Amino acid sequence: MLLETQIREEIFERINNKLGYKVTEENLSPTLRQKITNLVAIRKNILILEEANRGRTTRINNSAILRIAGRAIKNKDLIEEQNRISALKAELERGVISVADEISKEGLIQKISSASVNNEVYSVKITELKCPRCGAPLPFHDSHSVKCKYCGATLLMWGSTPR
Hints:
By secondary structure, this protein is mainly alpha-helical.
């Protein structure tokens, strides 16, 4: 259970970095919570496969007989395992991006719908701005876009006004 908690925290950290702000599970819809649970399962599978792969590689490398007899096993099976791990990592990254996009859209829709129902205007005070790609701190500018000096990503801020 501790591993799943750590993985869940890791997934949220990745999502928060993509969004550029922090979200908590309590604020999410049941659908998004389930998607995050699925991402946790994928990450757990990656860790299990990496550990099994590491153990197999160590056994083959530690035994001269297994090393000689197992070259075909090592070359074929380990490459297949590495491909599976790579595919799962790519699926995890796509999932994190997808969930971050959904959270962003869901938050925007909720703000628009509550504002239109109540005829109220909401404002958000941004206290910290992070690059959605690399997580580096971004400065506030008078323009509606900010470019990260580290990775070159551009962040557009709709409806924003300078401080």
